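Work Package 3 committed the consortium to producing structural models of liganded targets before the mid-term review. Because experimental data for this complex are still outstanding, the team generated a predictive model from sequence and the ligand definition alone, so that downstream docking and mutagenesis planning could proceed in parallel. The input record is reproduced below exactly as it was submitted to the modelling pipeline, together with the SMILES string for flavin-adenine dinucleotide.
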Amino acid sequence: MTARGSSVDFYDVVVVGGGPAGIMAAIRAASLGDAKLKKNVILIERNSSIGRKILITGKGRCNLTNSADIDGFIGKFGKSGQFLRSAFYKFSSDDLREFFKKNSLGIKVERQGRVFPSDDRSLSVVKALEKALADNNVKVLTGSRVMGIREEGGIFSLKIEGATEIWTKRLILATGGASYKVTGSTGDGFHFAKLLGHTFNPLRPGLVPLKTKERWAGEMQGLTLKNISIAFEYGSKKITSEVGELLFTHFGVSGPLVLDLSAQVVDLIQEKKEVILSIDLKPGLTGEQLDNRLLRETGSHGSINIKTLLKDLLPLKMIPVFASTLNIDPAKRINQLKHDERHAIVKLLKAFRLTITGSLPLEEAMVTCGGIPVKDINPRTMESRIKPGLYFAGEIIDATAPSGGYNLQQAFSTGYLAGESAANPDFSRKGGAGA
Ligand SMILES: Cc1cc2nc3c(=O)[nH]c(=O)nc-3n(C[C@H](O)[C@H](O)[C@H](O)COP(=O)(O)OP(=O)(O)OC[C@H]3O[C@@H](n4cnc5c(N)ncnc54)[C@H](O)[C@@H]3O)c2cc1C
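The resulting structure, written out as tokens with the ligand in place, is given here.
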């Protein structure tokens, strides 16, 4: 097509960003329309291939969703949870699994309802998505970074590096967040949204390792504590975890328990609150039960020293740090322990404390918190409330969850809903695309 004397290509629906949200949006939009009049849909991706971030998810295994029910999903997204209700109803975790099965991908469910491809390969997930794109005749334009977007009279025009300008009336922005930039998610979408009249909430790291003031955390680098629980304390308040795992790193702490609560801690640190990480090394026992256990040990093996006693209670790598924090000579025999010293051991087992000073940067966070505020998006369609014809899907939206497959399902569900609404705007604006 030629417009204003220059050559441009026109599409019914244009999707920017070939991550899970954009891919699903393109598949859904292209699947609509009657047999003769299929929607003409293009997916534009800056990398030479789609789904780069999917490849590194779940440590290369891709935890693609969770078997939780819809309310379980909504609960994981905190304040943004209700906004996602329509999207999760429209395309649920069950629907996603059915979709993958139809596209020849075996699925399995593991502990805590985490869903993976049955061959443990994230590449198989990308292959299944590529198959669905091809089956639905989506034009996929890779190696093509969108450089700028303008809107005039309801028509969006996209400037693309090394390619013809593209025009559309229905544009879906699915450019992801701004972390792990090497995968292509450099935050371009926030800039485009701003050009189109939107604001966005400040970007912060989520699912991110935390730094501690205590250098000795580094002495335990590589040590994973299992079956412990943690609490982040600030003033008289605290955020607590379930029982799980924590990993010591050269700069502080990581592992599932820390990552899942990290977004809240990052917010507290930004508010200049002092945050203490308190690790309960024996969550299955009360302080009293632990004290009784130490007393029994003193009665039956009183001549052993503290270091030997601790071997029964703690991983080897932790003992020197634990003993030096206690400030009791580790060679002291346990039957020489004073009442106060025994109590100090119990106290430290129940509350091993470190001071949080910050987090690794956004670049190293698994998700980006912040982004397009949900109040500016219609939850029943994913259409912008500010610029008609513009839709959002995936991590560009300010709606993230802890680990467990919830974030990928968010991307797939909002992508599906955005794709459906963009392909059927009149229908969806009348409320047809709701739950
Ligand atoms: C290490 C790691 C592990 C993770 N593991 C899991 C997991 O197991 N389970 C889970 O649920 N979540 C996981 N996540 C989070 C999950 O990957 C993201 O939430 C999800 O990928 C977001 O999807 P999206 O489509 O919105 O964005 P992205 O996947 O980031 O895709 C956005 C795409 O847009 C493209 N793009 C950006 N700008 C432009 C432009 N200007 N022009 C053209 N293309 C552009 C990018 O190249 C990219 O391909 C993990 C994240 C990381 C970093």
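Reviewers should note the following from the model. Confidence is low (pLDDT under 50) at residues 1-5. These observations will guide the Year 2 experiments.
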